[in-house]
């Protein structure tokens, strides 16, 4: 799950980043309007959490742009402005939710999950494919009644591919999805290859070998009917 946080209050931003990473989200952040604008134009996010009073512009504008261009990104406004009008304005430009500062981080987390559930039309936070069950809340995977021991990256890759089932997912988009800003010079596509190889091994050991296909030279595809 990839999340962008646009917030200029450094202390709050640090708190959120620490909390969200611990919860298993891949996080990126921006501290000004311009930075946020660049991010949403160049990258894809599952969710954007946006402050309204930003240096250089109004966060509402960012929500508006996201609505127009990438309707799949869930958006949550976080703001100290808490009049009814502020809330209505926020929801009218297309934000999915509005949280008034100060807020509890676990409430923010619960709201993100609720929105993503709504967006994917899922009744539960579980993806099920035949004998394979992926629980997004518990971050657990059960294959033929056996709980797999997956690393964080293996789990994230599996979820990303499963959410894009029957579509070819390129190595580039996996890299961008999992590492985003944190892709350093030492990054190599071999990392992805190694993670997928281990993931596949764990699936095969439990007779769930038919889901992950390699599309040579391009990437991977999660096969499901
Ligand atoms: Ca602010």
Q: Would you spell out the secondary-structure blueprint of this structure?
A:
Layout: E1 2-6, H1 10-22, E2 26-30, H2 33-42, E3 47-51, E4 53-54, E5 57-58, H3 59-69, E6 74-79, H4 84-92, E7 97-100, H5 105-119, E8 126-129, E9 132-135, E10 140-143, E11 146-147, H6 152-163, E12 168-170, H7 171-179, H8 189-205, E13 212-215, E14 219-222
Parallel strand pairs: 1-2, 1-3, 3-6, 6-7
Antiparallel strand pairs: 4-5, 8-9, 9-10, 10-11, 12-14, 13-14
Bound molecules: calcium ion.
Task: Provide a compact summary of the structure.
With 225 residues, the protein is of the alpha/beta class. 43% of the residues lie in helices and 24% in strands. It has two domains: 2-122, 3-Layer(aba) Sandwich (Rossmann fold), CATH 3.40.50; 126-222, Arc Repressor Mutant, subunit A (Orthogonal Bundle).
């Amino acid at each position: 799950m990839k999340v962008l946080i646009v917030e200029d209050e450094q202390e709050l931003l640090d708190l959120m980043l620490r909390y969200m990473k611990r919860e298993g989200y891949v996080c990126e952040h921006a501290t000004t309007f311009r930075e946020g604008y660049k991010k949403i134009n160049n990258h894809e996010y599952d969710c954007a959490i946006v402050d309204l009073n930003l240096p250089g512009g109004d966060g509402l504008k960012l929500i508006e742009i996201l609505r127009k261009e990438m309707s799949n990104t869930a958006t949550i406004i976080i703001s100290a402005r808490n009049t009814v009008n502020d809330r209505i304005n926020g929801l009218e430009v297309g934000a999915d939710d509005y949280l008034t500062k100060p807020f509890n981080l676990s409430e923010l987390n619960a709201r993100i999950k609720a929105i993503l559930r709504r967006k994917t039309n899922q009744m539960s936070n579980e993806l099920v494919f035949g004998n394979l069950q992926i629980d997004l809340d518990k971050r657990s995977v059960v294959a033929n009644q056996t709980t797999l021991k997956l690393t964080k990256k293996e789990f994230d890759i599996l979820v990303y591919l499963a959410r894009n089932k029957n579509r070819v997912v390129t190595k580039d988009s996996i890299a961008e999805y999992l590492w985003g800003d944190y892709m350093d010079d030492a990054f190599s596509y071999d990392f992805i290859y190694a993670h997928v190889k281990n993931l596949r091994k764990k699936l095969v050991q439990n007779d769930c070998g038919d889901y992950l296909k390699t599309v040579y030279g391009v990437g991977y595809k999660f096969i499901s009917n």
